[in-house]
Amino acid sequence: MNVFLNFKLFAPILLFISVFCNASTIDPPIKSASFYEYDYDCDLCGCTTGSGSFGFGTLNNANFVGVRYINQHFESKNGIFSNSPVSEETFNTYQLWAQVPINNSIYFSANLPYQDLSRKMDGTNENINGIGDANIIGWFKLPFYKKPVDDVMEGMEKEHSGHSLQFGLGVKLPTGKFEEALVDRVNPGFQVGTGSVDGIFSLGHSFAGNTFGVNTLLSYYLKTENKNEYKFGNQFSYSTKFYTAFPIKKTMLMPFLGISGDVFNKIEQYGETINDTDGSILNSSIGTELVVNRCIFGVNYTLPISQNLFGGNVTSKNQLSLYFNFAL
Length: 328
Known about the structure:
The protein has helices at about 1-25, 150-155, and strands at about 65-75, 85-100, 105-120, 125-130, 135-145, 160-170, 200-210, 210-220, 230, 235-245, 245-250, 250-265, 270, 270-275, 280-290, 295-310, 315-325. By secondary structure, the chain is mainly beta. The protein has one domain: Autotransporter beta-domain (Lipocalin, Beta Barrel), CATH 2.40.128. A twelve-stranded antiparallel β-barrel has the order 1-2-3-5-6-7-8-10-12-15-16-17. A three-stranded antiparallel sheet has the order 9-13-14, with no helix packed on it. A hairpin with a 2-residue loop joins strand 13 and strand 14 (about 270-275). The protein is globular, with a radius of gyration of 21 Å. The two termini are about 35 Å apart. It comes from Neotamlana sargassicola. Keywords: Signal. This is Transporter.
């Protein structure tokens, strides 16, 4: 129900966007499916239970500025018995995000979220909200070209093979508030921010053919101790997504399927590890993008395949992402 209420808030904005995109006289950046590369996924959520299934980029490889809404649901069991109380948690995230080029090989991506988190347990409601942790990542793209078949092609412009590697190095900033009083929750991810400066290291591979593409990304998040001597566990994320493209006049429809996962190390407090604060999750995802002129609309739905979070006490239910970008 909260998703529909939030959608009603965005309805006037989406209506304006639709009119603006259809009124644009700029032709869409559509040549063929090989023009698109499936951009990489990065876990940039400040929450410990956030997964890598929500990317920092989009299916469209264009540089952009945009907004994104993410809705996540969790259940946390407070006890070891079958009748132990269970809390229902909803994480709503509203993001400003962008991808800005420096040159053909180097570009930056940035993200500033606003978090609105709610929790229901035993008839009581709890809510926290505020600016979350901002982040910025620098990317270097290394494309691969086809080998010339004869001497005549040696002097010609190189032909792209469709394969490329991406190297990312970034930082997450403690712009979100960390509340020490919340660390006793079963789900430690119930925080607006982590209060720490964290490093982000990524390696990705992309292939874009004429009608089909695939992208794989490996990311490692090196987390540091905050001023409260609390340190979220380091995290390894992986993601692979497959997509195809259907050009329709001046639009492009791009459906995709994918899998992603995360492995979390244990949380440390006052220099000691906390039991049952590690875990792993494997997700499936389905979604699509619609490109109209310079406007990019996207939706991504994620459902867990298997998981073991915080000793089995926290369960990720489902996740939904909606976004609108304007290509630069």
